[in-house]
Amino acid sequence: MAVEPSLLKDILIFRDLTDEELVQIAGITEDFTLPGNRILFNQSDEADSFYIILEGEVDVRKNLGTKEQKIANMSKGAIIGEMAFLTETRRTGTIKTITKVRFLKILKDEFKTLLLEENSIAAYKIVYRLAQILSFRLARISEQFVDYLNTNKVPEKEKEGFLENIKKIFL
Predict the structure, then answer these.
(1) Domain boundaries, the chain
(2) Fewest Cβ atoms closer than 10 Å to its Cβ: which of 5, 109, 118, 144?
(3) What is the pLDDT of residue 97?
(4) Domain range 5-120, CATH class
(5) What is the per-residue pLDDT for 41?
């Protein structure tokens, strides 16, 4: 069930798309709602799609050993599930609705088909935007990690090893 192209216009990853490209993307996008206190997907699930939150809030949770830890709260405009979607790996976290949430869902198979179409640049524009978002998130996490190392009692030798690994990621 496709969505109206006008619904996509104000969403960050679709802002660079022409009206024709919005129609293409709308054709592979689903609009649905989940009530509060529901799981959208679990950590380690296969990724068949990514999502955009239109309304509501979700928690991002991660299993750390035997304990599940809340690592973020996301709301309107947030894109979720994009990492596993792009890398074709399993989900790295669990998404749980806090409130009633309205989502847009883009399925991987339909998106890949669009990527392979000869005259379709829309999917490439979206991948570019997703790469920008992931780069921003990685930079923010790295800054937070360095702040953590500097404000907590982490042995200097261990600190240097962490910082070297971060440099390898960015260089």
Answers:
(1) 5-120
(2) 118
(3) 98
(4) mainly beta
(5) 97
